[in-house]
Amino acid sequence: MFKSYHCLSVIFLLFISFFACKKTGSPMDAITNRDWKTEWKDYEKLMEKDPSFNNFQTGILKISHMLVDTHFTKDHKEILTKGIELCKKNKNTNYALLFKKEFAKAYPNDKNTEDYLMDYTASLDEDKNELEVKLLYDGILKRWPDNIKAKENAIRIKRNVSEFDFFLNETGKRMFGSPEVFIIDSARVEQYISLCEHYVLAYPKEEKAASLLMMGAQTAKTGKRPEKAVELFDWVWRYYPGFSDVSLALFLKGFTYETDLDQKEFAIDAYKTFLKQYPKDPKVKEVQFLLENIHKTDAELLKQVEN
Description:
This protein is mainly α and 307 residues long.
């Protein structure tokens, strides 16, 4: 189950990232003129006539688009819930988990997050992610101490959450070979990213949460996982606006689109959003330069420097 969920997650992240960059401006004041409720009613009528898998996927894409259009507005939670309900009605657990995970990221203390986070945790492969699962159950208990299933599972899994720092450090030391020989150890890169991500899902209010996401994102970028890097940079930017490096997260999101994914149109929108949101940031000149030269070839840039 975890493998199929992972593949769907990549597709979902690519789609969300596409629309996140296409929607310029601050996520805190993003407002759409679209009447999403009318649009959704029309879609539900379509599903009543033809509840095919293709139409179901159309609904998943609609929800994903709407989430970006209405991000951090009063409709965001309702749209996420529509996505979860759509998946439940069509008995699609994997897509539902994606929306539930996003819900838990956006609303860590909501009454529904307890169940959604439990569902997501239960979907993980304990053989591969034993420490992460332990962290999640422990984090659930810290927020909802009366959760009997979380308590039972936390006791059952013979790991200690205090192991996190040790394993993170040990994994980090071995991800990229030695100072003399740079080699990407893909398995350790995946493990490092997973530890960072699931720690924050478990303890979203911890002081080091945003820093861990940045570390995971940087690791993903260096470890040739640019889609994951974009997701984690975006997580910091959207949900940790008070973080000291929040502007850097947005910049690196755009830079990853440009340099690693060669999706320049998305990078342009991210850079423009950066300039609008952080006009006094030290990186403004660098971002302006990148915007002005984003479509130039290396030869053209070299000629420009020489002149």
